[in-house]
Amino acid sequence: MALDRPADVVHVEKADRTTIEVTGVGRQYIPTDPDRNVVGAVAEALDAPAHIRIDKGVRPSSGLGSSAASSAAAAVALNELYDRGLSREELVPVAAEGEAVVSGEPHADNVAPALLGGFTVATDDGVTTVDADIPLVACLPEIAVSTRDARRVVPSRASIEDMVHTVGRAATLAVGMCRRDPELVGAGMDDRIVTPARAELITGYHDVREAALEAGAEGVTVSGAGPSVLSVCHASDRTRVAGAMLEAFDETDVAARAYKTRVGRGAEIFDI
Ligand SMILES: Nc1ncnc2c1ncn2[C@@H]1O[C@H](COP(=O)(O)OP(=O)(O)OP(=O)(O)O)[C@@H](O)[C@H]1O
Ligand SMILES: N[C@@H](CCO)C(=O)O
């Protein structure tokens, strides 16, 4: 799903060849070489060379889709700058080319919601979108978890009992998104296959989860490949849940920041 915040801001100006400048959170970990930055691949896919300035609001390797935030923003901005006339749906495979730069293959998991907004389901057959609106807290600890490691720990086999449980919860989550119901979405976050393995890479995860639930969260899980921890709650509990998550990370000596957020509308154009 798209998050209303944090967000990247991407500025584009026409140029003869693509050059990149990066400021903001985690800029020291992000290459400016167009062959290694996701926005370089997007500019190439659209045949739209530009001077691209990225102001990062989404820290890289956060589990919040940092690379997808830049890819989607660049795709929307360059499509507009060069009048390419592509729809948001048509920009999904373009922005996915940016993801291929970091993960080796183009995938739409994160760029689809960043372009289309709401809750999206990306499969090999295409993308389905729900105009969801759910209050959230995304808590990002100062821990590095590489997507590669987080994929390595996922078990290659699962019991039929765990499959039945997890698929049932996933269906519940999708219904909850359609109904804009935080309780159903929260119940749907109880995955028994991937999350337990990934939780072990996040210091303090179990305490943070317990603290969020005690403070009123309806469900808590690892965001993406981690290390961010995501809570679903009612808007009236959001500040308390954010405080409880930060305190629990602090008690395990892990610095963290919390974003009080909600499902977002996806990339927006600003004329400056
Ligand atoms: N514009 C960009 N923004 C962020 N990361 C970028 C960008 N261009 C290249 N990268 C590289 O991509 C990697 C971060 O992507 P990665 O998929 O690991 O994390 P993430 O985007 O936070 O997402 P996920 O939710 O998939 O874990 C870093 O190695 C970073 O240097
Ligand atoms: N959804 C992917 C991360 C997306 O970059 C995963 O969980 O491995």
UniProtKB/TrEMBL annotation:
<dbReference type="Pfam" id="PF08544">
    <property type="entry name" value="GHMP_kinases_C"/>
</dbReference>
<dbReference type="GO" id="GO:0009088">
    <property type="term" value="P:threonine biosynthetic process"/>
</dbReference>
<dbReference type="Pfam" id="PF00288">
    <property type="entry name" value="GHMP_kinases_N"/>
</dbReference>
<keyword id="KW-0791">Threonine biosynthesis</keyword>
<dbReference type="InterPro" id="IPR013750">
    <property type="entry name" value="GHMP_kinase_C_dom"/>
</dbReference>
<feature type="domain" description="Pterin-binding">
    <location>
        <begin position="227"/>
        <end position="272"/>
    </location>
</feature>
<keyword id="KW-0067">ATP-binding</keyword>
<dbReference type="InterPro" id="IPR014721">
    <property type="entry name" value="Ribsml_uS5_D2-typ_fold_subgr"/>
</dbReference>
<dbReference type="GO" id="GO:0004413">
    <property type="term" value="F:homoserine kinase activity"/>
</dbReference>
<keyword id="KW-0418">Kinase</keyword>
<dbReference type="InterPro" id="IPR036554">
    <property type="entry name" value="GHMP_kinase_C_sf"/>
</dbReference>
<keyword id="KW-0808">Transferase</keyword>
<dbReference type="GO" id="GO:0005524">
    <property type="term" value="F:ATP binding"/>
</dbReference>
<keyword id="KW-0028">Amino-acid biosynthesis</keyword>
<protein>
    <recommendedName>
        <fullName>Homoserine kinase</fullName>
        <ecNumber>2.7.1.39</ecNumber>
    </recommendedName>
</protein>
<dbReference type="InterPro" id="IPR020568">
    <property type="entry name" value="Ribosomal_Su5_D2-typ_SF"/>
</dbReference>
<dbReference type="InterPro" id="IPR000870">
    <property type="entry name" value="Homoserine_kinase"/>
</dbReference>
<keyword id="KW-0547">Nucleotide-binding</keyword>
<dbReference type="InterPro" id="IPR006204">
    <property type="entry name" value="GHMP_kinase_N_dom"/>
</dbReference>
<dbReference type="GO" id="GO:0042558">
    <property type="term" value="P:pteridine-containing compound metabolic process"/>
</dbReference>
<dbReference type="InterPro" id="IPR000489">
    <property type="entry name" value="Pterin-binding_dom"/>
</dbReference>
